[in-house]
Amino acid sequence: MTINESQDEIIEEFELFDDWADKYEYIIDLGKKLKGLSEEQKTEDNIIKGCQSRVWLNARKEDESLIFEADSEAIIVKGLVNMLIRVLSGHTPHDIAKADLYFMDKIGMSQHLAQTRSNGLASMVKQMKNYAIAYSLKN
Amino acid sequence: MQLTETLDIQAIRADFPILNQEINGRKLVYFDNAATTQKPTSVIETITHYYNFDNANIHRGIHTLAERATRDFEASREAIRDFLGASSIEEIIFTSGTTQGINLVASTFGRKFIKEGDEIIISGMEHHSNIVPWQMLCEENGIKLKVIPVTDLGELDMEAYQNLLSEKVKLVSVNHVSNSLGTINPVKEIIDLAHSFGAKVLIDGAQATSHLNIDVQALDADFYVFSAHKLYGPTGIGVLYGRKDILNAMPPYMGGGEMIKDVTFEKTTYNELPYKFEAGTPNIADVVALKTALEYIAFHGKENIAAHEDMLLKYATEQLSEIEGLRIIGQAKEKISVVSFVIDGIHHQDIGVLLDNQGVAVRTGHHCTQPLMQRFNILGTSRASFAVYNTVEEIDRLVAGLHKVKKMLL
Ligand SMILES: Cc1ncc(COP(=O)(O)O)c(C=O)c1O
Asked: Of the candidates A112, B44, B219, B405, which lies 20 to 30 Å from A132 by C-alpha distance?
């Protein structure tokens, strides 16, 4: 599945919800389902500090694709992280670097990417892109 | 609830146009007043009136507009003198806010009068703006920073404070009221003790001025700072009160226009108080509007406002305490209307997001008091803080909102 196909799939899933609580319950559920990182994997190196909550991001290369793993101490952020990983992880650095993440806006969650939220999410997306750019330059 | 109200809260609410809106489909409940209060129509109108009719640069012009602007600007200074119980308008310095007031004192009084080997005392419940300027000064000049510990209830450990005091201490800088806990600190006692060792005292009044009566002379404070935006006034303006003899002995803060008497390339002589500390064109419109904010408070009566807020605090404390797993951080005997809390197993950010979706605005996080959060071994809290326009029904909305949050998350 391409990055955009995953995004469209998420958008379709969200069309089923007609009130905010259903949407957030789904995201909370995604947050609970995200495997996250072990305590040893949450290092000072991969921490992304938001004012409100911390996010940890790991990236590694497997064959041609970039694999992301991440965690957060806030469950809603974790649910959003889950979706970002579903969309971006497993693709080539090239595709990740040029990806346009329109799904957050379409499902009405773009406010969580705003810097004012200080939840580390915006920085995490930037960091994912940075990894992708770094890896695509390496090749 | 039995209410014996002297204030007509519904009429007061009508004075704050911003309250009359829906957020995410629900009537806005604004409980982030400790961060900044909303502004009454009279304050907003003062600002527009100023720009529509009176705008001119002050103190320098001889034309009518300049006279009007200067008159209103200085009338505000006089109103603040009265509000703080200061003896002279020379002791009232306009700043951009609490933060600038503290930085001004650190850079001028601090640099001149606090030397290597000396000590400064702050407390464990200070806002970062009453920590960092002193840390910077201490690092620069080899000064030691000492911290008054906070008890489990969220009060200052006064015995420990007495033990920290010595002849080496040149300044004690503490808040009147804690923004994270709501604790009202015994500042009179703190000041008297400091003075007995010859130390000067700065009181950060950011959270106090909208709730408590302030009398800097009765307190015998050397410095008292606050921000207009926390007492129904505009952002970008604040006040530093300083005792005249101390201000006179201090070097100026910034150089520029307004703060000088005569300038030649060889030597510049400085203007008199308070202008010595007010370099450049000030924030005139907002200074003028601060007076309107003080009049708004005076019109309703601080005692009446405090009584209403105390009632809200009591009700909120009772109602929130009944929520299972909820723990109130800050249970001091003397508090203003701030309730900070954590809920077992729930991150404060999730609380904030889910309450916002229900139209309830609270603040979540460390509230710029990270050392205090470390003291309580928490990452942050959710904080509801009340102002004159808040109601019992709104607290019910918060409580219902939290039940919903718990249902969704646990
Ligand atoms: C106790 C305390 N001190 C200082 C400040 C800083 O005030 P300002 O940002 O208006 O300078 C605040 C504001 O949050 C505060 O609550």
From this structure: A112
- CATH classification number, A3-138, choose in 3.30.450.180, 3.90.950.10, 3.90.1010.10, 2.30.30.100: 3.90.1010.10
pLDDT tens by residue, B243-269: 999 999 999 999 988 888 889 998 889
Does B3 fall in a domain?
Answer: no
Chain A residues within an 8 Å CB radius of B342: none
Size of interface A-B (CB pairs under 8 A): 40
Question: For this structure, is B138 an active site residue?
Answer: no
Per the residue annotation, which of A51, A98, A105, A126 is the catalytic one?
A: A51
Q: What is the pLDDT of residues B33-74, one digit of tens each?
A: 999 999 999 999 999 999 999 999 998 788 999 999 999 999
Question: B28 CA to chain A: closest CA distance, Å?
Answer: 16
- Tell me if B286 sits within 8 A of B264, measured CB to CB: no
Q: Write the ipTM.
A: 0.91
Contact B408 A53 (CB under 8 A): no
Residue that is written with structure tokens 């109601």 in the block: B391
Cβ within 8 Å, pair A51-B365? yes
Per the structure block, which two tokens stand in for B38? 């909303």
Instruction: Return all residues near B11 (Cβ < 8 A) that are at least 6 apart.
Output: none
How far is residue B213's CA from residue B286's CA, in Å, rounded to a whole number? 22
Residues in chain A: 139
The pTM (predicted TM-score) of the whole model is 0.95
